[in-house]
Amino acid sequence: MAIIPRWLRIPRPKSFLYIMSLRTGAEMISLSMIFNKITGFYGLLAILTGFHLSPLQLCMYLYSLGALVLIAFLMPHIRKQSPFQCLALAWFYLIDTVVNTAFTSAFAVTWFLAVSADESHTHIPSSAPGSGTIDDTAGFTNPKNNLSKSAGAARDAVAAAAAAGTPSVGHGVGIEESIPSLIVVVLLTLIRVYFILVMMAFARQVLRQHMYTSPSSKLQVHMDGSSDAPADDPFAIGKSGGQGWKGKLGRIMVKVGRSYWLGGQADDDWARGLHGRFRSRKLVSGPPGTLERERRARSGTGPPVPPPNLVKG
């Protein structure tokens, strides 16, 4: 199998924002997810006040509530550095990003349609997701007190002419006031992508660190960077982590992107730091050969006895 060029590989951050460790970054990212998902709980409380939720909003709030429970369960394992839980958290963050992007895109489309409808003095198309809720709560697409009716005849004529147009996403995006909102959405999406790389890099670090310290592991890491051999699968059948449903799910998670999770990268900082722990830091004291003579004296393998015919000079 051909080796993927380094510039084509998925970026592997070695720190969070270049000032914190990956573990600290994973904890901060997970904490931000918890604050983000709490909105789902408060969104469901709005039903008790009689507020009408669209099916899309209800799905989003229910998903946020389930995600909140899952994150609260997985987050403590970041400090414990549990391989299965950390890998599951990285995958869930990736899936959550895709789901959130889908929800954001749906609401963004409806919002731009609302802005376009306001410009053309029409209603939001009913086919838009969540159009009914936005049309009722936006405040400008269908206001209760329509002041345009009390305007002059010229204002009515302009409104009638504009009403002939049909709201569209392109028209809503092209409005000057919509450009800052679009820029903010793009920037937040890029930040989210960076957070994905951090979570995946931390999970990869935990996996390889676990395999490197495992007594039964056959992983051999050469610190000169010449080895690119894959690590053993910690969820393989027969290993402690490969038992039960966790083992099956772990093998599925590792199988997707196996070269990333288990691919050999001997220049990782975790390997250098871990390798240094097993190096002897005992300083050599005394004249050269002192430690060797002590070792031979303890084992009874001292220097050979000189032959009897040896004559001293």
Structure description:
With 313 residues, this protein is an all-alpha fold. It has one domain. It contains 12 helices and no strands. The protein has helices at residues 22-45, 55-74, 76-80, 83-120, 131-137, 153-163, 169-174, 178-213, 244-255, 258-262, 269-277, 290-299. Residues 145-155, 157-164, 218-227 and 269-284 have low confidence and may be disordered.
Write out key terms for the chains shown.
DUF1753-domain-containing protein; 12 helices; 313 residues; mainly alpha; 0% strand; inositol phosphoceramide synthase regulator activity; membrane; single chain; 58% helix
How many strand units? Answer: 0
Main pleated sheet: none
Stretches where pLDDT is under 50 for at least 5 consecutive residues are: 145-155, 157-164, 218-227, 269-284
Mean pLDDT: 73
User: Rg, please?
Assistant: 32 Å
First and last CA, distance = 68 Å
In quaternary terms, these chains amount to: single chain
The gross shape turns out to be: elongated
**How many distinct domains?**
1
Pfam family, one: Kei1
Transmembrane segments: 55-75, 87-113, 182-203
InterPro entries: Kei1 (IPR013862)
Keywords: Membrane, Transmembrane, Transmembrane helix
